[in-house]
Structures are given as structure tokens and as C-alpha cells.
Specification:
Layout (H helix, E strand, L loop, with lengths): L1 H14 L1 H29 L11 E9 L3 E4 L6 H8 L3 E19 L2 E12 L3 H4 L18 E5 H8 L8 E4 L3 E9 L12 E4 L22 E7 L5 H7 L2 H6 L6 E8 H4 L10 H30 L3 H9 L4 H38 L5 H4 L2 H28 L2 H6 L10 H34 L9 E5 L6 H12 L4 E7 L11 E6 L9 E6 L4 H5 L3 E4 L10 E5 H7 L11 E4 L4 E9 L14 E4 L7 E6 L4 H15 L7 E3 H7 L2 H35 L1 H9 L4 H35 L10 H27 L3 H5 L3
Parallel strand pairs: 4-8, 5-7, 14-19, 16-18
Antiparallel strand pairs: 1-2, 1-9, 1-10, 3-4, 3-6, 3-9, 5-8, 6-7, 11-20, 11-21, 12-20, 13-14, 13-17, 15-18, 16-19, 17-18
Helix pairs in contact: 1-11, 2-9, 2-11, 2-21, 9-13, 9-15, 9-21, 11-13, 15-21, 15-23, 15-24, 16-19, 21-24, 23-24
GO molecular function: transmembrane transporter activity
Membrane topology: Multi-pass membrane protein
Organism: Spongiivirga citrea
Length: 794
């Protein structure tokens, strides 16, 4: 029986090739998009689940309770030792410190290799918590001794040109010789680790003394603490027990710490701690369902329309003894065949576009990574679901047709599903398309607003480069003078970090005007020289810039600081004292700068102070003439290497660094545009199929209208008017949904664009124009056909 169903289904597909193509291609796009979204979701949902004891591995985070709660994926340097020695909750505890762009100097194949690499300094227990195996399959046994390290196979090949490098050495930051004691297999892509080189934690004091200290006074985002808990531990009880630590070790701090344990499975999906927002995964999952839904709607509309032509076939089948169930399963089998073809074509499309998808999101997804029972289960489930949803309604309609009416040719629209049903489904298609278009417009507007709005500082043609940590201040001052003398260099400033897109954010407690207690809020310390304001074009609101000095005596603050303090005007701040960083900074406010955006638009502008200290500079910023960038950069590099022959001149443009803050949004915007375009394209396929049906059904009507004097434009209006009405209804339904969801999305930005009414009008008009283009060809073809030929059509 089933074999017979499939034979008949194949014959019907061959008989109606155009409609079969529209259905298969529309569903294929839906399936292909769903497969790509499945790969995307599967990738993000599988982070760090490959460890043996992943259910017992936790990261310890800090909630900083001031006037607002801030979330840090870190703890004070002394926390790990106390948690390890004073509590009995964990089998293992280990710190890891991430340091970016450290200089690596190695001998490889008779040549010297110099690279900048991201290094992770780890305590020995780190590789006992996480099972990252060595290339020989064994566990890491070393790193309990100083000057030892392990590399991944990829890093080993990059540095030494081979992977068998145990016993080889490299020089770290022109300081320590590190021996390679193990080579790790390349790390899975789905892990929180972004380093491929690991060095013993006992070397951390050479790079970052704070991380190796027993300090409870502050935290650094570079330092993280991981623990493997004993079996059957109650995380809530542990967090409750840790509440005693701040009172014991930070009794006078206004910054109240609350230590929280975060499951390793939650790290990648928690936006409070730099993970991605799970809402994004939900959104793209829903978009995938939308695309399949639109394709299914196309199928239902075209299939119910075709039932009108197949009514005599149905009548004959019923007269010859077919039951309703036979007809239902006959149509469902046809749907299954179409869906099966669509799955195969969709998988091919996904395979073709996977490299572009990977490039967009900087992923390395491959089909072989997910060729598992879970993937095939998803694919088969999607095939059955789409077949049932697409085929069941037309199958029911077809099986209900009365054989007498069918054989007499008196079947009308209501007998084949009704025009009302088709209109409802078309409205649903249009509504989904309008929601996607509006969402794309608003996301694009917000990103453009964030990148192109005046940030309060100049980011154009400014080059940022790291300063070697061990440089003598006098030598560096000499280099600054030489760099400032290069033609094309307009300004030079040494600083801890640039404004906006900063890589070295430093928040600290502050006392104002000799008050006995520290303020409830944190202040961001921008350590910079006297050229900082001029180089980055930061405006003074009142007062003056600080003078060059060998000691910290003068400081600048921003207007936000005055608002937090509660003064009536910025002038009241001048001459007042500021004490910060535990008394290391004790200076007089001599100027107030206008507020500038030091972080992305998701956060409010924070209180900032700018103070000079040549021992704390980490970067140099050079404002260069945009007309001579290439030659100026060449001259800067030459001067740099003459001063620092053992270092690499590595630089970034500040505008690129600022734009990177919205890199994720840019990628999701690109994907939203693609999916919105696909939704519209699939909808257009369905409209084209429907217009073929309507034109064929109303051929004689068109001929009669032409005989009675109707012109081409009036006939075109006849066909488009109904669709335009449906679009307006869809727009009215889609507008509140789109407005609500995008309003919720914009709540994630402290500074955001407005949702204008014309976004919705533009989306509706765009759908109207696309619809007009889609249906015009067949309509004009019918309208320009000779009425004699139209009236002779059977």
C-alpha cells in the first residue's frame, strides 16, 4: 500500500513540476536554515561538557555590592589559598591568570622566532580539575615547578615548526627561559579557554605581581579561580559559608564582596559574566522555526489550491472505493516525498553555505562534528513534523470532497480549504516577514547609533601600541619626543589605556574632600600623561589640565563624578582633594572633563579620574595625519624598533577597538538580514505559486473584463489589491509584536535609539513592493493575452 502511495506521489510531482519545484525549494531553504541554526545552537550548548567531572567543576565569581551590583568572573588573589586550606568542600582548587600578547622568543630550525602569544599561568591542580589530555593521551603531570610550560600541538607547530617539542625551551618576555614539559592535544573549540600556551603559576610574579600576592583588597578580571567540588556538595551552603570572608579580610571596605559558585556549564551562557545571552539562542531558534513555518504555509496554500484541480481525481477514487483515510495518507505520502527531497536539497545548501556561516561567526563548524544520533534524530524529527504539518490539513480537505460535486465539476473554494484559510496563512507569512524586517532595521539603527554617535573623544586615526613593561621611564620619555617629531604624528600620549574599547579597565574606591568614609561607588582610574586630553580630543568642562610632574599632585575628574558626589556644578569640585587606590593616589582636582563613553552603550557613563604616573603606563597613543598613515606608520615602527630591538611593534587603530565592542551585535545583525531575506524569498515563492493558481483559475474572467473595456492596469490592480489588504492586516498584527520585542531588546542598552513609526511603515511598504514585483509577471502576462485566447481556455 505504502509503495503504491509513493508511486502515485512521484507521478503527481512529475505532472506538476512548477508547483513541485516551488514546494521543494521553499522547504529546502527552510530545512537548510534550520540545519545551520541547529549547528549554531549545538555549538553554543556544548561548551565544556566534555570534562569527566563537568557537573562538579565550578568557577568562583565575585558580586561587588556598592551603589550598584557589579559582576566579576574573578576573586581576590588570596581567595584560592584560603578556600583550599580552610574549607573542606573541594578536591582541587586552582588559579589561572590570562595574559595577552606576551613576547615569545624561540629557536626553531636554526632560526629565531619572535611572536606575541596569549599565555595562561596555571597552578598545578588546574590540569587535575580539567581533563585536557597530552598528545600521547596521558594527563599533564608537570607545571608544579617554576619555568615549565605546556603547549597545544597547534602552538608547538606555530613556534617550533613541529609538535614533538618536549624538552625545547623558549624565552618569555625577554626574561625567563621556559622548558616545555608536555604537549597538549589541540583544545576543543567548545571550551572557555582561549590560550594555547600554559606556564607554571610560579612565574606569575615576573609578569603580574598582584595575581601572585595574598591580597584581599581588589580583583583583576585576568585572574580566575576554579574548583572541583567533592561529590554531593550543596552549592548554596558553600556560598553561605563564604559570606564570612569579606568581614574577616575586608572589614573596612565599602565594596562588599559576595562570592558565588558558577557551574562550568553556565560560563558560556551567562551574560553577567561575559558569556553570551541565552536569549540570542532562543531568538535564532525561533527564527529557524519561523522559516520552516513560512515554507509549510507555502505548501499548505499551494496544495489546497491544487486540490481544486484534483477534485475529479478524488471523485473517481471515492467512487472506486477509496476511504477518507486512504486519500489522507495518499496526500501525506506525497508531502513526505516532497519533504524528503527538500531535506536532501536543504542539507546540500547548508553544506555549501557552511563556510560563509563559519566566516561570519568566526566558527569552525563542520558536518562531521555533529554527524551523531542526536543530529540525525533532529533531522528525522524535523522531516516528520514538517511532513505532518504541511500535509495533514490539505489531506483532510481532499478527503472530505463529495464525489458527486467533484465529478460534476461543482467544487468551489470552500470545498478546497476556503479562500479565508489561505488568506489567514498569507497574513501569517507577511506578519513574520514584517517582524523580521522591523527587527533588522532597529538593530542596525542601534549599532549605527552606538558606533557613529559622538563618544566624547576622537577615535579616528589614533594608533595604540603596548609599552614594554620593563622600559626605563627616561628612555621612554626620549622615545616619545622622537615619535612626536616624526612628520605625520600630531600628538603622542602615554597611558594605562585609551578611552573607549579600553583593554585595561581599573576601578578603585575613592574618598572625596577628606571625608572619613569612602564613597559608595567605584571610580575608573585613567592613568595618563599631560598629552592625553589633546591626543584623544577630550574636552575640559571647567578648570585646566594637570601639569607634568614626577609625583601625583593633580587630578582630573569627569562630570559624572560630580553628579555622583552630589555637587551643584562642576566648579565646586575644583581645589578639592581625592584619595584613591588605598592612598597611593592623593591629589587635588584641577579640572573637570566632559563625560565620554569609556565602555559600550550597554553601560552608563561611569565616574572617571585622569591622573599621571609614569610607572603605571601600559600603552602609547599616537594621533597621526590620515593623509599619510602608511608612511607615518613605517617611520614609527623604525623608531620603535631602534628603541626596543627585542620587542615587536604591534598596534591597533582605536576606531577598530571601539567597533569591536559591537562585533557580536554586528554578526547577529548580518544573520538577521540573511534570515529576513530568506523569509521574504520563501514567502515570494509561495505568492508566485498562488498567483499561478489564481491566474489559471480566472483566465476567462480576465478575457471577459478585457472585452468589456478593462485595461492592463485595472487587471493588475484587481489581483494586487487583495494582497495589499492582507499586507496591511499583517502589518497591523505584526507592529505591536515587533515593537514589544525590540523595546525589550533595547532595554539592554543604557544609551539607545528610538523606535520610530516609520520603521513599521517602511517594512510594510517594502513587503508591498516585493509582493508587487513577485506577482506582476504572471498578472501582466495574463492581462496582455488576447481575450479570444483567454475565452477559449478550458
Amino acid at each position: 500500500m505504502f509503495k503504491n502511495y509513493l508511486k502515485i506521489a512521484w507521478r503527481n510531482l512529475r505532472k506538476r513540476k512548477v508547483f513541485a519545484f516551488i514546494n521543494i525549494f521553499g522547504l529546502a531553504i527552510g530545512f537548510g536554515s534550520a540545519i545551520l541554526i541547529y549547528l549554531f545552537l549545538n555549538y553554543h550548548l556544548s561548551f565544556d561538557k566534555f570534562h569527566e567531572n563537568s557537573d562538579r567543576i565550578y568557577r568562583v565569581n565575585t558580586e561587588e555590592h556598592r551603589d550598584e551590583v557589579e559582576y566579576e568572573a574573578s576573586v581576590p588573589p588570596a581567595f584560592a589559598k584560603v578556600f583550599r586550606e580552610d574549607y573542606e568542600y573541594a578536591e582541587k582548587v586552582a588559579k589561572i591568570v590570562f595574559q595577552d600578547g606576551l613576547l615569545i622568543d624561540a629557536k626553531a630550525n636554526g632560526r629565531t622566532v619572535k611572536l606575541k602569544e596569549d599565555i595562561a599561568f596555571v597552578e598545578a591542580a588546574f590540569f587535575q580539575i580539567f581533563n585536557f589530555p597530552l598528545s600521547n593521551g596521558q594527563k599533564v603531570a608537570g607545571l608544579d615547578a617554576p619555568n615549565t610550560g605546556v603547549l597545544t600541538e597547534k602552538a608547538a607547530a606555530r613556534i617550533f615548526g613541529k609538535t614533538n617539542v618536549v624538552g625545547e625551551t623558549f624565552v618569555l618576555n625577554n626574561n625567563k627561559t621556559i622548558e616545555v614539559v608536555g604537549v597538549l592535544k589541540d583544545l576543543p573549540k567548545t571550551t572557555f579557554l582561549n590560550s594555547e600556551m600554559f606556564v607554571s603559576f610560579q612565574n606569575i610574579n615576573d609578569i603580574f605581581q598582584f595575581a601572585g600576592s595574598e591580597n584581599w583588597g581588589g580583583i583583576s578580571s585576568n585572574l580566575q579561580c576554579y574548583t572541583l567540588l567533592n561529590p554531593s556538595q550543596n552549592v548554596g551552603a558553600i556560598e553561605k559559608a563564604l559570606e564570612e570572608l569579606p568581614a574577616k579580610h575586608r572589614p573596612k571596605s565599602k565594596n562588599r564582596h559576595v562570592y558565588k559558585l558558577q557551574s562550568i556549564a553556565d560560563i558560556h551562557l551567562n551574560p553577567e559574566y561575559t558569556g553570551i545571552d541565552p536569549v540570542i539562542l532562543w531568538v535564532f531558534g525561533i527564527i529557524g522555526l519561523f522559516l520552516l513555518a513560512i515554507a509549510c504555509i507555502n505548501f499548505v496554500n499551494i496544495s489546497t489550491a491544487q486540490t481544486f484541480y484534483r477534485s475529479k481525481e478524488i471523485g473517481v477514487r471515492k467512487v472506486l472505493g477509496s476511504f477518507k483515510t486512504h486519500l489522507f495518507w495518499q496526500f501525506l505520502s506525497e508531502t513526505f516525498v516532497i519533504s524528503l527531497f527538500a531535506v536532501l536539497v536543504g542539507a546540500g545548501l547548508a553544506l555549501v553555505f557552511l563556510p560563509s556561516f563559519n566566516s561570519l561567526f568566526e566558527l569552525e563548524l563542520a558536518f562531521q562534528d555533529v554527524l551523531s544520533l542526536k543530529f540525525f534524530g533532529f533531522l528525522f524529527g524535523a522531516l516528520l513534523l514538517v511532513s505532518f504539518l504541511s500535509g495533514s490539513y490539505p489531506g483532510i480537505i481532499m478527503s472530505r470532497i463529495a464525489p458527486v460535486l467533484a465529478l460534476k465539476g461543482k467544487v468551489n473554494h470552500n470545498d478546497t480549504g476556503g479562500s479565508s484559510t489561505r488568506k489567514f496563512l498569507v497574513v501569517a507569512q507577511f506578519a513574520i516577514s514584517i517582524v523580521l524586517i522591523v527587527s533588522t532595521l532597529i538593530i542596525s539603527r542601534q549599532i549605527d547609533y552606538a558606533i557613529n554617535t559622538n563618544l566624547g573623544f576622537d577615535k579616528e586615526s589614533i594608533v595604540m601600541s603596548e609599552i614594554p613593561a620593563d622600559i626605563e621611564p627616561a628612555k621612554f620619555e626620549s622615545l616619545k619626543l622622537r615619535l612626536a617629531g616624526i612628520p605625520g604624528v600630531e600628538n603622542v600620549s602615554a597611558c594605562l589605556s585609551s578611552p573607549g574599547g579600553a583593554v585595561n579597565n581599573w576601578g578603585t574606591g575613592v574618598k572625596y574632600n577628606n571625608r572619613p568614609e569612602a564613597e559608595e561607588f567605584n571610580i575608573q582610574a585613567k592613568i595618563a600623561d599631560e598629552n592625553y586630553l589633546e591626543t584623544f580630543d577630550i574636552e575640559l568642562a571647567t578648570g585646566r589640565n594637570f601639569f607634568k610632574s614626577d609625583s601625583i599632585t593633580e587630578v582630573l575628574v569627569n562630570e559624572k563624578f560630580g553628579k555622583k558626589i552630589g555637587v551643584a556644578s562642576s566648579e565646586e569640585l575644583l581645589g578639592k582633594k581625592i584619595e584613591a587606590n588605598g592612598g597611593d593616589i592623593n591629589a587635588t582636582i584641577v579640572g573637570v572633563v566632559k563625560d565620554f563613553h569609556d565602555t559600550n552603550f550597554t553601560q552608563e557613563i561611569r565616574p572617571v579620574m585622569i591622573v599621571a604616573n609614569q610607572n603605571w603606563y601600559g600603552e602609547i597613543g599616537l594621533k597621526i595625519n590620515h593623509n599619510s598613515i602608511k608612511s607615518t606608520l613605517g617611520a614609527i615602527e623604525k623608531e620603535w624598533l631602534s628603541a626596543f630591538p627585542d620587542y615587536i611593534f604591534d598596534y591597533r587603530f582605536l576606531d577598530e577597538r571601539v567597533a569591536e565592542q559591537y562585533e557580536t551585535e554586528q554578526r547577529y545583525l548580518s544573520l538577521s538580514k540573511i534570515f529576513a531575506g530568506l523569509a521574504i524569498f520563501i514567502g515570494c515563492l509561495g505568492l508566485y505559486g498562488l498567483i499561478l493558481f489564481f491566474v489559471g483559475q480566472r483566465t476567462k474572467e480576465i478575457g471577459i473584463r478585457k472585452v468589456l473595456g478593462s485595461n492592463v492596469m485595472s487587471i493588475l490592480t484587481l489581483f494586487t489589491a487583495d494582497f495589499f489588504k492582507l499586507i496591511l492586516i499583517a502589518g497591523a498584527l505584526a507592529t505591536p509584536f515587533a515593537w514589544y520585542f525590540m523595546e525589550q531588546w533595547l532595554q539592554g542598552y543604557a544609551y539607545r535609539t528610538k523606535i520610530h513609526w516609520w520603521f513599521f511603515v517602511l517594512a510594510i511598504v517594502a513587503v508591498m513592493i516585493i509582493t508587487l514585483i513577485t506577482i506582476s509577471y504572471q498578472t501582466l502576462k495574463a492581462a496582455t493575452t488576447s481575450p479570444v485566447k483567454s475565452l477559449r481556455t478550458e
